[in-house]
Amino acid sequence: MTSTKAGSWLLRAGAACFLVGLVFVGIVFLPFFAGSSAQPTVAAVGTMLGPVGFVLVLLGLGRRAGAANRAVREALKAD
């Protein structure tokens, strides 16, 4: 597996989860600007997608870095 392919699905999934989580954060704060204190429960639970997405992106970056390090080690071994 090349270093550009490793962890790419984690990066895409993490970025999508993070962006959806940010939308839910906006949905949670929108009633406060409208003068209401009621929060939709689903939106409050959906805000947890932000940190989950952040962790997935970090895992994807770690996998990509590990693959790049393995590729460099293999290239150095071949010399």
Task: Please outline the helices and strands.
Layout (H helix, E strand, L loop, with lengths): L7 H26 L7 H6 L2 H30 L1
Query: Spans with pLDDT under 50 lasting ≥5 residues?
Result: none
Q: Helix and strand string, N-terminal first?
A: HHH
Helix content: over 70%
Q: Tell me about the largest β-sheet.
A: none
Q: Looking at the chains present, what oligomeric state does this protein adopt?
A: single chain
Q: Mean pLDDT across all residues, rounded?
A: 87
Rg over CA atoms, rounded to whole Å, is 19 Å
- Distinct helical segment count: 3
* Total number of strands: 0
Question: Helix/strand/pairing class, anyone?
Answer: mainly alpha
Rounded to the nearest angstrom, the distance between the terminal CA atoms is 20 Å
Sum up the overall morphology in one term. Answer: rod-shaped
How many domains, in number, for the residues? 1
Q: What proportion of the residues form beta strands (DSSP E)?
A: under 5%
Q: Which terms summarize this structure?
A:
79 residues; 3 helices; mainly alpha
Walk me through this protein's architecture.
The two termini are 20 Å apart. The chain has three helices and no strands. Helix 1 runs antiparallel to helix 3 (49-78). With 79 residues, it is mainly α. It has one domain.
Could you write a compact summary of the structure shown?
With 79 residues, this protein is mainly α.
